[in-house]
Amino acid sequence: MRTILLGPPGAGKGTQAEVIVKEFQIPHISTGDIFRENIKNGTELGKKAQEYMDKGLLVPDELVVAIVEDRLKKEDCKKGFLLDGFPRTLPQAEALDNVLKDMNVTLNKVINIEVAKEKLIQRAVGRRICRQCATAYHVDFNPPEKEGICDKCGGELYQRADDTEETISKRIEVYLKDTKPLIKYYQDQDILVTIDGEKDIKEVSKAVVQTLGGES
Ligand code: ADP
Ligand code: ADP
Ligand code: ZN
Known about the structure:
The chain is α/β, with parallel strands linked by helices.
């Protein structure tokens, strides 16, 4: 299974990614998670990315494409992969097509998760992330069993610096301008499926897994 999760910030991509990678046993490639890991470790890449992320802007295409290209060439991607948060611009999508062509593979499906703007802000503002394993929770919609602690690994939960109402609004603006055109790009390739992301987490998961031809 080679697939992409497309959707505005806060739509539930990361949440649904967890279910997909479990069902299909494929690696989860989240460019946002890769950048946050680099920021945590104080790498040069992390320093560069943070300047853009804090402002709600996209990291430049060249940086992102190079990272994804490297990642896709690793052995574990031979059985497939799930891209979450990449591509986010037309040049990124075109670069991805070239990489896949080199690898002699094609995408199975692109899942477009649709959620209205007011809900995106509510979701992002209440989002809490595990410092250790990057699992996302929500203070109201998907709380952990113990406040502030990850159910899966016991890690500490924190609020992302870019999950303020102001930065989220900026990110939605950037999404509408730079990322939304990818819907047409993948429609033209006949691989886009749009899913209603406003239902509860379990219902969305069911629709996503069914779309991809899975069992649960
Ligand atoms: P969300 O889950 O809210 O959609 P992500 O974790 O995917 O956010 O991304 C957080 C930030 O990381 C983005 O606002 C952007 O600055 C940067 N980023 C992540 N993926 C990309 C990408 N493919 N291209 C450019 N910037 C990216
Ligand atoms: P994205 O990766 O698209 O930015 P996330 O998966 O991180 O989105 O979800 C954003 C926030 O919304 C998280 O706090 C998550 O727990 C919550 N969330 C995800 N899906 C749903 C849903 N279907 N209903 C309500 N809240 C959700
Ligand atoms: Zn955790």
